[in-house]
Design brief:
Length: 124
């Protein structure tokens, strides 16, 4: 089991930065690949990026490449999403998720555990 809780969302102006955190209470955290997704209203959940269980491999969706960075601290059972040069189109609810796929994956169906989400709003 892995309970995930995101934090760090908020309102920021375009061009600004935010760091999201996702803390896990489960012992198995360090064995999971971790992903970040985002969702706007009723649209499909969109892949943002993922990180391997060791933290030595990351993948990013094209819209966020070069602006977002995922990292993790297995000692703290926490994964981070550093977002910079934010754009209004980054506005969404951001979710972290855990998967048994060790490198992480862009398919939300591969993720077993999800956080409750945190709102990020970017004003123009």
């Amino acid at each position: 089991q892995a309970r995930l809780e995101e934090s760090g969302g908020g309102l920021v102006q375009a061009g600004g930065s935010l760091r999201l955190s996702c803390a896990s209470s489960g012992r198995a955290f360090r064995t999971f690949g971790m992903g970040w997704f985002r969702q706007v209203s009723e649209k499909e959940r969109e892949f943002v990026g993922c990180i391997s269980w060791r933290g030595d491999s990351t993948q990013y969706a094209d819209p966020v490449k070069g602006r977002f960075t995922i990292s993790r601290d297995n000692a703290k059972n926490t994964v981070y999403l550093e977002m910079s040069n934010l754009k209004p189109e980054d506005t969404a609810v951001y979710y972290c998720a855990a998967t048994s796929v060790s490198l992480g994956t862009s398919d939300p169906n591969d993720y077993r555990f999800w956080g409750q989400g945190t709102q990020v709003t970017v004003s123009s």
